[in-house]
Each structure stands twice: as C-alpha cells, then as structure tokens.
Amino acid sequence: MEEHCNGNSEAYAKIPKIKFSKLFINGEFVDSVSGKKFETIDPRSGEVIAEVAAGDKEDVDLAVKAARFAFDHGPWPRMSGGERRKIMMKLANLIEENLEELAALETIDAGKLFKWCKIIDIPNSIDLLQYYAGAADKIHGSTLKMCNGQYQSYTLREPVGVVGHIIPWNFPSIMFFMKTAPALAAGCAMIVKPAEQTPLSALYYAYLAKQAGIPDGVLNVVPGYGATAGAALCSHMNVDMISFTGSTETGRKVLRAAADSNLKIGEICMAGSRVFVQEGIYDKLVEKLSVMANHWVVGDPFDPSAQQGPQAHKGQYEKVLTYIEHGKREGATLLAGGKPIGEKGYYVQPTIFIDVKDDMRIAKEEIFGPVMSLMKFKTIEEAIERANSTQYGLAAGIVTNSLNIANTVSRSVRAGIVWINCYFTLDPDCPYGGYKMSGYGRDQGLEAVDKYLQTKSVVTPVYNSPWLILISS
Ligand code: ADP
C-alpha cells in the first residue's frame, strides 16, 4: 500500500481560515453562557484547528427559546411554501458559490478526501436543499368523504414545531441537510447539535442561511458534547421532535430522554462491513483484494491521488485499531493491513480479514473504519440467513449477474436499502433509514417531509347544520 500521509496539503488546496466557531442562536454568533470551549482537531495531524464554543443546557435553553418564538410568532411557518422554496434555493446557491471552501473545511475537520467533498458531500447537500425546496410548495392534505355522509372534512398538513437535530461525524454536511432541509420545507424551527468532532461546516451553513434570508431563530446551531448539549436538547420540554442519527447505544439514551420528557420521535442508524462471498469465487476474490489493498493509496485527504484519508477523530482511530486486535485474537486471518500509519494523525491501513466467523466481534459489531471481513457461503439461502442474523439493518448490497438472485436477495434481506450491483448510491429522492436496531423513520425521499408535519382534520356539515338551525332559531 502506498502511504502519502505527510504530504503538503497547501500544495493541493487552500486551507480555509476558520471564520465561525461560536454558537449560532437567534441569528447571531455568540459565546457559550459558561464561556467554555472545546478543541476541534485536524485528523491529518492531531493538531487543534480551532476552539469552538461548547454549548450546554443554558445555551440549549436559549436556542430552544429562540426557535420556539420563531415558530410560534415568526414568519417562517406562516409564509407560503413558495416563499420558503425561494429562500432555500438561495441558500443552495450560496453553498455552491462557497463550494471549494466548504469542501476544504469538511476535509480538515472530518479527514474526508477533498476531491470527494467537492463532488459528493457538498454537491449532495445542495441537491438535498434543492429537492426539499421544491417540496415546500407541494405540501397537501386530503379531502375526506366521511362515513356518515352528513359531513365533509379535509386535512391540513402543518409543521410539527421545534425540532432538535442531532448529527454524527461521518457525513457532517449531508446529514445536516438530510435533516434540516425537509424540516425547513415543512416550516419548522430547529436546533442543530453537530457532532463534537465535526462542528465547523454546520456553523458555516448557519451563516449562509442568514444571508439567504432564513429568519432569525429558525435555524440555530449549538455545538457541544453529546452528554451535555445533546442530552439537554433531547430532554427539553419545548422541543416537539428529535431527529437523531448516530450509534445505537446513544439512540437508546435519546429515546429514553424523549420518553421521559414530551415523547418525541427518535431515529437511529448504523452501517455494517460484512462481505459474504460464494465459495466458488472466494479464493479468486481474496487474491484480487490482496492486490488492491497493496495499491490502495492512503494519504493526506487534500492529495488528489489519495483513496483513503485519516479516521475522523482519535476516538474512532483507537476504536478501529482495537477491533483489528479483536479480529486477530478471535482467530480471523489478516489478509492485508492491520496497523496504524505514520507518526502523526489518525491514519489506519486498509485492513482485510478473511476466514471470519459470524460470531466474531468484527462480524457482529460496527467498526466504522477501513476494515473488511470476508465470510464464505455455499447457497443463497444460507447467505440470506446469515446476512439477516444481525441486529442491524441499515443497508445491504448484492453483486450478481442473476436477475433471480438479485430479486430474491433484495426481497429477503432485512435492510432499509439494498443496492444491486452498486453500493452507497444515495439520492434525495430515495428514502434512507434502517430496519431493526438501525432505527426507524426515514431521511430523504418526499416522505421525509411528512415526519416534520402533523395532520389536522377540519370538519363541516354538507347539508344544513343542526348547530346553525339551533343558533338562528
Ligand atoms: P458516533 O458513533 O457516530 O460517534 P454517537 O451516537 O456517539 O455516534 O454520536 C452521534 C451524535 O449524538 C453526536 O452529535 C453526539 O454528540 C450525540 N450524542 C452523544 N451522546 C448523546 C446523548 N446522551 N444525548 C444526545 N445526543 C448525544
């Protein structure tokens, strides 16, 4: 494998100056009430990029108060869907104008490859905004005929109110818009708690949202830790709904906090890294993967030739290395990688384990790093059964030339999305979310707007109302 970790990033791209590091509440950048800050770290070097204001309960209180006021009295939920659409389109344009800078910001904060941020993370965020901007003026209720024939009725779809969005570090920009864009289209006001490892792009988006004309208080961003800012948001009585993406363990805490307060909706999601390979092609694939791993370029995420950057933060880096040790100890064979790279930063070799058994930790738990586990199977039925014998079910992929196998597997695997002869293909129009412990609720797709809306029934008699007769006589 080629290692380029100590490349000179400045040679590849302009490293952005950090412009926004305070909380964004009610349209202003402000310090935290306690004055506390936390460091956000560049995973390429382990060095501090910026000190960011650390939100806690008092700051969440202020942000919720601002959002509550914006929702209860402000223009955003009251303006026409068409007006919200125009403002959201303007925000999408502003992001496009600042694409290079936002991509670089995401790269230094999350260690994502710069070339991918420019063609995937930031453009997909723009797509999400434009998609849901288009939905903002197409929110309809239905007309009801009613069983008893005396009345007619219709439903109105109204925004749920103040929403708390809790976001993980793996896709800071895409997750930000996967959650905020449908909620904005619906007319909600919101508080975003970005992951403590990757708060910078969210603050930049808050700034651009104000430039685009999103009214103060509608979109607040409160960076901080999960146990402080995140927990305060989940248990706040004035938050009507929580939308959460992160680990299952945290998802449980979020649901518990929601149940103990005013019953909001939770949503959790996870991804897996188990690869089942049919016995006839197993050896050949192992050979090919071994060659690929040896040519895989790990390096500075600004380096255009890099195929893999650093892990996003130290905790994740250590977690990945610990899982690799579990794999070795439990008897899996290391085909490639298995070690950290370089003296500084959080780089890990692309790692492939073969002869992995279903009950090993690397096969059962989510690693969220460059670690692949290969498992051999004989029949399709066996592969389906083993693929389903996990507590998770966010996504699955099938590689086959057989239409029958593709149809059978895609209908049998219990996962929220199944990719056939492709992988990780996401689109704003395609709902995304997990089965089983990978959560409930869906992001993306038109149905995602629905979760930020609630239904009101309006009923009136078709013929002379007995009430009117009563009043007029
Ligand atoms: P990951 O494995 O993606 O780091 P986490 O579930 O730890 O997953 O984090 C996802 C998001 O949840 C982050 O923004 C984090 O700060 C937040 N979070 C962590 N703990 C809590 C909590 N107790 N309550 C609310 N949010 C939390």
Explain this structure.
The chain is α/β, with parallel strands linked by helices. The chain folds into two domains: 10-269 and 437-456, Aldehyde Dehydrogenase, Chain A, domain 1 (3-Layer(aba) Sandwich); 274-393, Aldehyde Dehydrogenase, Chain A, domain 2. It contains 15 helices and 21 strands. The chain has helices spanning 57-73, 81-97, 99-110, 114-135, 172-186, 200-212, 226-234, 248-260, 279-295, 314-329, 361-364, 380-388, 403-412, 447-450, 466-472, and strands at 2-4, 23-25, 28-30, 37-42, 47-53, 143-144, 151-159, 162-166, 189-193, 219-221, 241-244, 274-278, 297-299, 333-336, 340-341, 347-348, 351-354, 371-377, 395-398, 417-420, 453-461. The strands form eight sheets. It has a four-stranded parallel beta sheet, with helices on both faces. Strands 12-18-17-14 form a four-stranded mixed beta sheet, sandwiched between helices. A three-stranded antiparallel beta sheet has the order 6-7-21, with no helix packed on it. Strand 9, helix 6 (200-212) and strand 10 (219-221) form a beta-alpha-beta unit. Helix 4 runs parallel beside helix 5 (172-186). It is globular and about 90 Å long. The termini are far apart. The model is unreliable at 266-272 (pLDDT under 50). The structure holds adenosine-5'-diphosphate (ADP). Adenosine-5'-diphosphate binds next to helix 7 and helix 8.
